[in-house]
Design a protein that fits this description.
Largest sheet: 6 strands, mixed
Number of strands: 16
Strand order of the largest sheet: 5-4-3-2-1-16
Radius of gyration: 19 Å
Order of helices and strands: EHEHHEEEEEEEHEHEEEEEEHH
Number of helices: 7
CATH architecture: 4-Layer Sandwich
CATH superfamily: Carbon-nitrogen hydrolase
CATH class: Alpha Beta
Length: 286
C-alpha cells in the first residue's frame, strides 16, 4: 500500500565545470532537503558537469560508477530516494556519451536509470543555437520507476516538449513526472512554466522539476525557476531566488486518482484513430 502524502524536493543548482565542487554543493542541499523532511529529492540535469563539450570526455563516467557509489552512501545515510537528474555517462561510441538520469533507493541501491531520448538540437537565430546530439547519444527506452510511495515517470529537460512521451508514461502508471533540467535561459523565459503545467494538466500527474540556474563562467545561461506542480496545474512551490536553493512540497498522491476520475483523459483516448492516416482536405479552388 502506497503512502499517499509524500514530501518531495527539487534541488536548484548552479553547476559548472568542476565535478567535485558541483557534487559537494549538491550534497549540501540534498542534506538540507532531507533535514526538512523530504523523502524524494531530485537534482538537475548535468548535476556533475555543466561546461563546454570539450570537457565531456573527462567528466564522463560509468553508471554505476564513482558518483553513483558516493551518492548511494548519501541516500542510505539520509534514508531518502535520491534522483540524480543526470550524469554524463560513457558510451561505446567514440566521442559520444549518454545523458543519464540515475535513481538511487533509500537503501543505497541503484533503482533504475533513464537515458535522455530527445536531444536539444535547436536553431533560434540570434538567440539560441545548440546541438546536444553532437556529443550525446540518445537513449531508446521510456522508463517508469515503481517507488515505495509512488510511480515515477522519468524524463530530462528537452523531453518536456514532447507530450507523447508523458502520455505514454502516464498510461504506464506514472503518478509523478521527473523533469530534471538545465533549461536554456532564452527558451525558459518563454516556455518553461507553460510546458511544465501543461504536462501536469493533460495527464493529471504531479511534476517535480529541479533546474540549473545562472550563467557559468563559459557563458552557459540557464533559466532556473525550479518548481513542483500538482495534477490540476497548480504550482505548489517554486524557486524564490535566482540561485541554488531547495524547493519543497508535501503532495497527496490521491489527487492523481481524483483528477483522473473527474476528467478521464487516459480512459477516453481513441488510440486506434491516432494510428490511422489523417484526412487532409484540399482547397477546391487550387
Amino acid at each position: 500500500m502506497y503512502l499517499r502524502h509524500v514530501t518531495v524536493a527539487a534541488v536548484q543548482l548552479s553547476s559548472g565545470a568542476d565535478p567535485d565542487d558541483n557534487l559537494a554543493r549538491a550534497t549540501e542541499l540534498i542534506r538540507r532537503a532531507a533535514a526538512q523532511g523530504a523523502t524524494y529529492i531530485q537534482t538537475p540535469e548535468y548535476v556533475t558537469y555543466l561546461g563546454p563539450h570539450e570537457g565531456f570526455d573527462q567528466a564522463a563516467e560509468a553508471v554505476p560508477g564513482p558518483t553513483t557509489s558516493q551518492m548511494a552512501q548519501v541516500a542510505q545515510e539520509l534514508g531518502v530516494t535520491l534522483h540524480l537528474g543526470s550524469l554524463i555517462e560513457s558510451s561505446p561510441v567514440a566521442g559520444k556519451y549518454f545523458n543519464t538520469s540515475v535513481l538511487l533507493r533509500s537503501d543505497g541501491g541503484l533503482a533504475v536509470t533513464y537515458r535522455k531520448i530527445h536531444l536539444f538540437d535547436v536553431d533560434v537565430p540570434g538567440a539560441n543555437v545548440q546541438s546536444e546530439s553532437s556529443v550525446i547519444t540518445a537513449g531508446d527506452e521510456l522508463v517508469v520507476a515503481t517507488l515505495p510511495d509512488f510511480s515515477l515517470g522519468m524524463t530530462i529537460c528537452f523531453d518536456l516538449r514532447f507530450p507523447e512521451q508523458y502520455r505514454a508514461l502516464a498510461s504506464a502508471g506514472a503518478e509523478l513526472f521527473a523533469v530534471p533540467s538545465a533549461f536554456n535561459a532564452v527558451t525558459g523565459a518563454a516556455h518553461w512554466d507553460t510546458l511544465l503545467r501543461a504536462r501536469a494538466i493533460e495527464n493529471h500527474a504531479f511534476v517535480v522539476a529541479a533546474a540549473q540556474v545562472g550563467t557559468t563562467s563559459e557563458g552557459i545561461a540557464t533559466h532556473g525557476h525550479s518548481m513542483i506542480v500538482d495534477p490540476w496545474g497548480v504550482v505548489l512551490a517554486r524557486a524564490a531566488t535566482q540561485g541554488p536553493e531547495v524547493v519543497m512540497a508535501t503532495i497527496d498522491l490521491d489527487e492523481v486518482r481524483r483528477r483522473r476520475q473527474q476528467i478521464a483523459v487516459l480512459d477516453l483516448r481513441r488510440t486506434a484513430l491516432y494510428e490511422t492516416d489523417v484526412h487532409v482536405t484540399k482547397d477546391s479552388a487550387s
